Each structure stands twice: as C-alpha cells, then as structure tokens.
Amino acid sequence: MREVFEVTAQDGAARIGELAIPRAGVTVETPTLMPVVNPNLITVAPSRFPEFGAEMLITNSYIINNDPDLHERALEEGLHEMLGFDGAIMTDSGSFQLAEYGEIDTDTEAILEFQHEIGSDVGTPVDIPTPPDAGREQVARELAETQSRLELAESVDVGDMLVNAPVQGGTFEDLREDAARHAYNTDLDLFPVGAVVPLMNTYRYDAVADAVLAAKRGLGRDAPVHLFGAGHPMMFALAAALGCDLLDSAAYAIYARDDRYLTVHGTEHLDSLHYFPCDCPICAEHTPDEVERMGDAAREQLLAEHNLHVSFGELRRVKQAIKEGSLMELVEARAHAHPRTLDGYRALLDHSEQLEATDPAAKDPFFYTSADSARRPEVLRHHKRLERFDPEGDVLLTEGSGNDGFDDWWNVAPPFGPYPRALSTTYPLNAETPTRMDRAGYEAAADGVRRLAEANPDTAFTLAHRDWPESALERVPPRVDAVDIDAGDAADETAGE
What we know:
Layout: E1 5-11, E2 14-21, E3 26-30, E4 32-37, H1 49-52, E5 56-60, H2 61-66, H3 68-77, H4 79-83, E6 88-92, H5 95-101, H6 108-117, E7 122-123, H7 136-155, E8 162-163, H8 173-184, E9 191-193, H9 197-201, H10 205-218, E10 225-227, H11 236-241, E11 246-249, H12 251-257, E12 260-263, E13 266-269, H13 281-285, H14 288-292, H15 296-324, H16 327-335, H17 339-349, H18 352-356, H19 377-386, E14 394-398, E15 408-413, E16 417-419, H20 439-455, E17 460-465, H21 470-473, E18 481-484, H22 485-496
Parallel strand pairs: 4-5, 4-11, 5-6, 7-8, 9-10, 10-11, 14-15, 14-17, 17-18
Antiparallel strand pairs: 1-2, 2-3, 12-13, 15-16
Helix pairs in contact: 7-8, 8-10, 10-17, 12-15, 15-16, 16-17, 19-20
C-alpha cells in the first residue's frame, strides 16, 4: 500500500484526512463525497460539481467500455476531458452490474488496463459483491475469489493510478475483518466496504455499522475507507462516525428523476411540499409549485442541484463537527430522525470500546441528549480510568456536598458516576446533562460506582444519591452504603413542620 493518506483530526473513529491522488496531482480532503456520473444520463454537468464542493467523482468504466461511442471518446479524449471534470476521478469496474445481472464480459486485468488507458485516477478490480444474506459457505467461497482477484490486481501495471481493494464478507463480521486484513496486506491503496448497498436500500443501518466496524478492525489507521453507495445525507454523520473517508452518491440524480427531494432527515416527494425547508440557491429562488410546473428536464436538473447542495452542506457540517469534537451529538440528532438510523447509531454504540481507542482525550463538552448517550465512548473511558484511583479510608460519593465524618469525598454525576472533585471542570466531566436524568444515565453512574468499589476492595464507600431508581441501585455493590439525600431532606422538612 502506498502512503497516500494522512489523518489530521479525529473524533472517535471519524477523521479529517488528506488523500493524495498522484495521477490527478491533487490532494482531496476527507470525508469526501463523490457524485456518481452515469455517462449516458448526465443530469448536472460534472464541470459544475466544484460549485457544490465536489473534489472527486466516480463513474463506471464498464459502461464506458461496453458503449462503442463512449469507448472511443474515452480513449481519444481521456476521461477528464470527456466528462469535463478537472478533479480526481474514480472508476468502478462493473461489479455492480455483476451483482445485478449475474455476469459481465470483462475481468480484473482487462478492466484495470482499460481504466488506466482512459486516464482514471483510482481504478477498481472486479470483485464479487456477495448478497448480504447469503450463507456462510457462499460468502467464504466468493470472498476467496475476490481475494484472488486483489492479488491479480497487484500484478497489473497501472503506473501511478491508485487501485481499490474492496472488502467483502457479507454480514459475517469475522469474515469482514479477515478480508480487510488481507486487503490491507496487499499493495493496493483504498479500501471500499463492498456489497452494502442492498443493506442501505432496505434501511438496515445496524448491519451496515457492524460490517464497516468489522472491516475497520482489520485495517490500519492509515487506510482510507470508502463506503460504497452511501449517498443519502441522512446517514453521512453515521458513516463518518464509523470511520468512512469516502462516500459516493447516485441518489442526487436518481431521486431527482422521480421528483424526490433530499433532506438530512429523509426524502420528500415534490408534490407533498408547500414550502422548501432549505436555504440553498434552488430553494431560495423557487417555490415547490414553480418547480413542479416546469418541464421534466428542467425540474429534474433543479432537484438534482438541490440534492447536491444539501448533500455537500451536510458533509461540511460533519467535517466541522469532527474538528470541534461534537460528531456524536450530530450522529445522535440525525439518528432520531428515523427508526432505522437509530438502529445504526445503537449498533455503533455497541462498539464503543473500539471507538474509544481513537477518541481524543479532550474535546468540546459532552452533551447528554438521550438514554443512548450513556453508552458513548467517553463514559466507557471514564469507567476504565476509575480503576486507576486508590481512595483510602471511609469515602463519600455524593451528589450533594461533603461531610466532616468521612476521610474523603468525591462527586457523583450521571452518567459518569464518581470522580475526584478536582476533575469537576475537566472533560468529559464538564458535560451538559439534563436535570431530569433518565434511567440509563443513573444506571451508567451506578456502573461507575461498582467499578471504583471493585478496584478498591479495602475502602469503605457511601453513596449519597438523589432518588436513584431501583434499577440503578441494584447495580451498586451491597457493601456500598447507599443513602437517598432527597429522602433525608424530605424527612427534615416534615420534622420542621
């Protein structure tokens, strides 16, 4: 693998990076979104893509190779001239057509040589995109064939064209991880997570999350990862949080042909809109009625332009969140817009330990916005760190104030649990949390109490809490004396009457 990728900022598994594309002579900032260009159905001229923020596009070399006119033009003019795009161009190999129709009339060596000949900057071998619900035997067999083709791709002379090493493995996480490890050990350059489009088309974002994170476990930190087919802006934040660096979108054009209007929360049909809920140039200058009354071509183009604007606007929002360390807040906000994206977010949190390994030790304040926040990597890290402390004697862990009858006293705050008072203004304990904490937050705090108590078996602990639910108190070790401060305050008030 050539050294073409450098990480410059990180938030969990998400990162800002610089991807060098030697043949194009450019460096692309990631995460990046590549508009998909069907050379037979161009809705928005690729020469205009930089207006929206595109630095790179993807097109299909198999379609170009099999169309006599396009084939001749691409060889004669070169891919960049033919499409009118000066940025980096990635080409697919026909694997999508293989998945759709069962066979194609090309092979890895021939298609890579053709991609190089027409001037592609990043080429792709012909991998086997196994359907997501295929049985393990089929997945393993087709994965072995893909790996053979990656090894063949290493031997093809493509000069300074980068080459993708697709990572297959179906929904079997161990096979995905092994496939990624194999791909990473080749001389190939970029690592698309393949055959996940059917999962995204059926909104199985939890399975997508599991597949991507399994692949990430087999790849090195310097491996640029491409999530094939992640074209809807509602899942860009999740894709970035999974550690994906390149995304591609055919949705901007496909949806426009069906009068569908993209938003960061989902998809609207044009005829259902009374107002455009967007401030892009298209929406600022037109009403839904005006666009609906236009001819087919004009309406399709305007909707495609809006779809590009909203997509690249969300991508910039994701990048800013990574830079300031607030991506998980954005992921959670987007997740609650649709039950299936919430599934994806919860699957992401199932791997908090994996995310914690690359999460910065300090960033913007942690915002607790739902029960899911209790499972974030920051909470896990704090619980791990509690095992390093060794308080002695009789220690009060309290949501209130200290007491002279104890040798020491610590603060307690859901969802983190106990912490030394000196750390109260440090990250992540300076978190913004709701006054009305939910059960999950209290239970996570109780887990923190348990961690500290188990790490210090000779220390006596008293937990002074404010009406924690029974489900949280059940997690506190029996040897920790739990006292409800609110109950005591209420008793004092009653006695005073």
